[in-house]
Amino acid sequence: MSRHLLTLAAAATLGLAAPAFAQGVGTVQGRVSDAASGRPLPDVQVTVADTRLGALTNAQGEFSITAVPAGARTLTARRLGFQPATRAVTVAAGSSVRVEFTLDASALNLSEVVVTGSAAPTEKRKVGTSIASLDSTIVGRAQSVTVDQALQGKLPGAQITQNSGGPGGGGMSVRLRGTNSFISGSDPLYIVDGVIIDNGSSQLADLGTRANPQNRLADLNPADIDRVEIIRGAAAAALYGSRANNGVVQIFTKRGSIGKPRFSLNVRGSSNELREQQPFNLYPFDAAGLPLARFNYQDDIFQRAFGSDANLTVEGGNEQTRYFISGNSMAEDGILRSTSSRRSGARVNLQQQLASNLIANVTANYVNTANQFQAFGEQNDYGIMGSLFFAPTNVDFRPVNGIYPLPPSLGTNPLLAIDRIRNPQNIDRFIGSTKLTFTPVTNLLLDYSIGIDNTGFEQRQFVPRGSVLGTAPLSTGRSQSVFQGTRVINQDGVAAWSWPQVGPFQLRTTGGFNFTSQRVRITNAVANGLAPVGELVSAGSVFAAGQSEVELRTLGFYGQQELEWNDRLFLTGAVRYDASSTFAPSERWQAFPKLSAAYVVTPNRAGAFNSLRVRGALGWAGSQPGILNAYSQYVTFTQLPFAGRPGFVNDVTFGNPDLRNERAREWEVGAEAGFLNGRIGAEATYYDRLVSDLLFFRPLATSTGFSRQFFPIGSMSNKGLELLLRTTNVDRPNLQWTSTVTYARNRNLVESLAIQDFQSAGGYPNRIRTGQPAGVFYGSYAARNCLTGALLLDSLGRYRRSNQTVDMGATAAQRRAISGGTCNDSLNAVIGDPNPDFLASLLNEVTLFKKLRMRLLLDGVFGNDIMNLSTRAQNAGIASNSKEFERELLPYGDPRKLPPGFNARTQGIFEYWIEDGSFVKVREFSASYLLDWAPVKRYFRDGIDLTLSGRNLWVWTDYSGYDPEINLFGTNAGGLGSGQTTAADRGFDFGGYPIPRVWSIGARITY
Amino acid sequence: MRSYKTLALTLVCGACSLDLQNPNAPTVDQVTTSPDGVIALATGLQGRFASSYGNFAYMAGLVTDEFASTSAALISISDAEQGAVPSGTGIADNVFNSVYRTVRTADDLLTGATALAAQFDAGTRSGLRALAFALKAEALGEALQSYQRIPINTLGVTAPTYVPRAQALPLVRSLLDSAAATIAATPPSAFFNASILTPGMNLPNVIQIFRARYARMAGDDATALAAANLVARSGPTALSVLTFPAPTVNFYANVTGGTNGIAPRRQWRLSMAPQDQRFAYFVTPSTTVSGRVGALLDPWSRYASPQANLPVYFPDEALLIKAEALANQNQLAAAQAALDSVRTDCTGGRGLDDPKACLPALTGSLTQGQLLTEIYLQRRYELLGTGLRWEDTRRRNAIRGPVAAPGVPTDGQRCWLPYAIGDRNANPNATFTALPDPVEPAAFPAGCPTT
Description:
The complex is a heterodimer.
Chain A: H1 5-14, E1 25-34, E2 45-48, E3 54-56, E4 62-69, E5 71-78, E6 85-91, E7 96-103, E8 113-114, E9 122-123, E10 131-135, H2 136-141, H3 147-151, E11 158-162, E12 172-176, E13 189-192, E14 195-196, E15 225-231, H4 234-237, E16 248-253, E17 259-273, H5 298-301, E18 305-317, E19 321-333, E20 340-355, E21 358-372, H6 384-390, H7 414-420, E22 424-438, E23 444-463, E24 478-498, E25 505-528, E26 542-565, E27 569-580, E28 590-602, E29 609-623, E30 637-639, E31 648-650, E32 653-654, E33 662-675, E34 680-699, E35 708-732, E36 735-753, E37 757-759, E38 766-769, E39 776-779, H8 805-808, H9 812-819, E40 829-832, E41 838-848, E42 852-862, E43 865-868, H10 869-875, H11 883-889, H12 902-906, E44 914-916, E45 919-931, H13 934-939, E46 944-951, E47 955-957, E48 988-989, E49 997-1006
Parallel strand pairs in A: 1-7, 13-16, 32-35, 43-48
Antiparallel strand pairs in A: 1-4, 2-3, 2-5, 5-6, 8-9, 10-15, 11-12, 13-14, 15-16, 17-18, 17-49, 18-19, 19-20, 20-21, 21-22, 22-23, 23-24, 24-25, 25-26, 26-27, 27-28, 28-29, 29-33, 30-31, 33-34, 34-35, 35-36, 36-41, 37-38, 38-39, 39-40, 41-42, 42-45, 43-44, 45-46, 45-47, 46-49
Helix pairs in contact in A: 6-7
Chain B: H1 2-12, H2 28-32, H3 35-63, E1 67-69, H4 75-81, H5 90-115, H6 122-144, E2 149-151, E3 162-164, H7 165-185, H8 190-196, H9 203-217, H10 221-229, E4 240-242, H11 251-256, E5 262-264, H12 266-270, H13 278-282, E6 310-313, H14 316-328, H15 332-343, H16 368-382, H17 388-395, H18 421-424
Antiparallel strand pairs in B: 1-5, 2-3, 4-6
Helix pairs in contact in B: 3-5, 3-6, 5-6, 6-7, 6-8, 6-9, 7-9, 9-10, 9-14, 10-14, 14-15, 14-16, 15-16
């Protein structure tokens, strides 16, 4: 079979088995049986590749497909609980051809062909690493706004987090096998149809300095997606060289299918709501016991918001040309009033056979995303959530004579912000690619592709005069316009040669190159001192402007040798040789080798234990410090204009002329096994990754006039286990029920650092510290009695703060006297860990009478800590709006009464704000019904598919804030000083945008 | 291998070089090898000087009796106004870090002016060098008024050594002497004065007041007197100011609001002699403004406008130094006359925009001790917000220890700042073991050991 491995694989990917320019139609008939028992299999779906033709087998396992276009065709048979099988047939016009299928029982599909990480199309069972793939039905049924949302809860080893609940997807971060870098971020490399795309999440104006309201993957329309392949680690990703340390997510969009044009319309309406209000201090008395009116602003800030999504696709084609055209319009309002997101786009995918051995694939996708956001998170001057948490509840924010009162000490009036502050964004994006596939001889495959991702991102911000507290310049109003142009050009070439078979051995040699140029240009204009009317920069009277331009180029070559023996043992060795313009010429060229092996111990057979495959891999990959640090190798001067003249001073960040990339070594071992005649499939992987030469700023002696230098500062490991279990619980003609369980645990550890520790998020109590997981919470704690472990209280019953001399005394002796031991000697300590102990999910799918499909996805994160800085803000003296502060106001004698100053004291005790962030969410629920009554089918050939679905419907958690999933920090890494953030900054809840509960109802009509 | 790479590069794309230029920031070579770059360094130096001077004056005012935090200020600022400056806070580090950035840029300018000597005319070269000497000296002088020991050789070393004042002060003075000698030998060119020196600054006067200041600190009364006499006391060159055209903002306006907010303590105004008019120059009297921990404040009037200029020195400082040097030399009548010219400076006076006391002349002949006390008092009201108050209290053995709110401090509250964490983190000569933080006095009032 293996001689034509390449051709078959290419056929599966490209969809054309062989050059054939036939006319007319024929019939394909056949029978499908169980490979183990030989019994006929009913309800097997047999489809003809590249067409929409297909049929189900009857009780005798027989099927018949008519009107199949003549020519070489590929048939696939699929059934629940069995491995899909593929057969090549040649259909002659006007005649009938017979095909026999035997299917192997298995809950896991290892016959799928993947391309990510393997240079050329390869069946999964031959790959020595764990590769996940999801097809369009899984992405489509999630009914999500973005692709990354659709992946939540479906991949073991992937922590996919929605950092904010804003419209247009919220900011998503995808973390495969833990945190693997500090400065290079945590996100994997994203590739769409062979184009490396930009998934930046930086905001161009201050919407909360380090907040993440949207990442640019949100520009992709989930309905266009055919397949997603995910490789999680360095061992699998070595072929992506210096950018693959965080894994690779490759997305393929839909291709057309042969046949008459088919129109498909998919419409969906959704309703988003705040899942649960937070309790606020509504106690009708003040600290002196005098009556006081209090207000619950949540009623005015949040709303039930509606969204709609419409997709129209047309696909069709013939032997030479296939097309897929789609148009999409999505509109969604946020649950925070005055926020919204709109996306509209179009796509044309075209495949054209240029010659019998040359095929061109062209994709073109244009999208416009228009958002209206509001600042949240750290933005306390005009952020709505910050203002909510920092404003006392006794201020009446309703406008008087058209003027909105400002809060007493911090922030803005949230009603004013909703009414008058504007942050519109407009993103125009084009992603296009051309791929040429040339097979000059059967054994040689040549691929060349070139792609471009061009994004024009404009953000404006308008803060009217007098709308925030404080002094000039912000109080005089601000109008800002920032334009960012991002352009990624990517070129890839692959050549794969399949050697003639020698005895039991089969060999394939692959080589290729990749060149990527990424350029970001930003121009920025800001005005203060705004005129009373006018929102644009031109309404200002004091101006500032800025411009920057960055380019990063990466060039790489690779070679790979595959060897297979008897279709049982598969060995692969490869090396990528990579260079990036970011790195110093002396360190630039780096080799990333990999080795992998897979062995089929037990091919599919009948019985309780019916299949086993084992695999192992070792590989290296790198990461680059991101485009914002693309020039870190240069020692530069920076502008310091003074008194209206241009001036230069040394950049206090000293360049590193020896800069080199971060380097990860990973090995993984794993197995797939089938039980009970394939009704249970299990997959397990253990991995061990060590990332060394992690880049970060090391401090330089400030007496030299410098502050820091980008430097290989340490190493970090991630070790973990990923499990997946897929079961067929019930398989009856009118009832099918399957379950999928995933479990993943990861242990992150900072192995070594050149300095003792450093603050991870500037201004926040978390650290990168040797011997601890990255991003642990580190700070003051409530002192305890060393003997009894009880909390130490002062005379008023308040906690004692570990790093306060008022509470603990000035000397070590005094501290020990108070503590009864040495347990409170350190001023600060590790007080929590935001990294979860494990992640788990459970998906149940039930199909009734072949028409009603129901699915329920539970997604959970366990054992992670959250620092609840939102409630800390509520407890601050100026705000005093929390339920806990209310207890201070209660009359003496009330058992809930807290001593005066209790909450003022806890402000400084960071341990007090750590909570268990474990949760289980009803991530997805859906029920679909196929309406295929005759009257309906008369107009709509395939019937109408109706779906009721929900996302994030319920949450089980002990966490007291709005949502345990949101995080103050997004996927950005970088920044300096108080603006610094790294990939390890997780678990901070501070003025986040709550994630809404979404109900939606949709219909799909095809004709 | 190289030829293989070249071949491959050519095949893939002819123009995809991996050696990219950074268009956002010039490299060292681009700046230090061109006359324009070196001239821009001179502007950058003055910008950094403004920042280090601002940081010094701000911090010194907090730990003495001049300033207190406004209501929204950070906790570290309200701690500092009560005499507490924990290691690692911005208050402790900012002076050090910004001073050594100024020093670095001064050194870069000296290197550039020397390397490109042939490309500058003699007067321009002289001006560039004198400017670098003077501002480096003053920056180091600010450091040694804040830290017990400071590094003095920081160029080309990764681990600078800390030295006591006895070694640092002579260096500061010799830098100033070099500055004075440089412009005495070759006066700065018209081009330097018009296009390089920041508008509003007069270099000869700045050099001489700095010489007088550090000569006095070293107890060299003769030099202090001679230098003070060389500082112009009237006419347009008698003022030297740093200017802040929009959108730049002067240091005090920048820190007035928000988390760094400070304002003069009301006690500064209330403690004046009733006729003293100098408060009107600096503050807007208030009966209502109070700060984060309850200190009573008067908002700035002098620096309230974001574009208000920042004096490099007040001209009457020269008179006060002169009076002190004369008093120390027992020339009491002359000292009293110099002091009276400060006291009687009144509207119209010498035609300068400086504080005007409008006080009557002293009556009778004061003793040396009375004169020195009176000089100390006049310096308090004449030199608000210059940071000089701290060294004055140190010199008078008037460090009175931390004063917790609602107490109101008089004189200085502590001797020194803890050493900067930024240097401790990376300089083996500045670790906690190698360089323990100075021990604050145990009994008050106290002076401060300088070794």
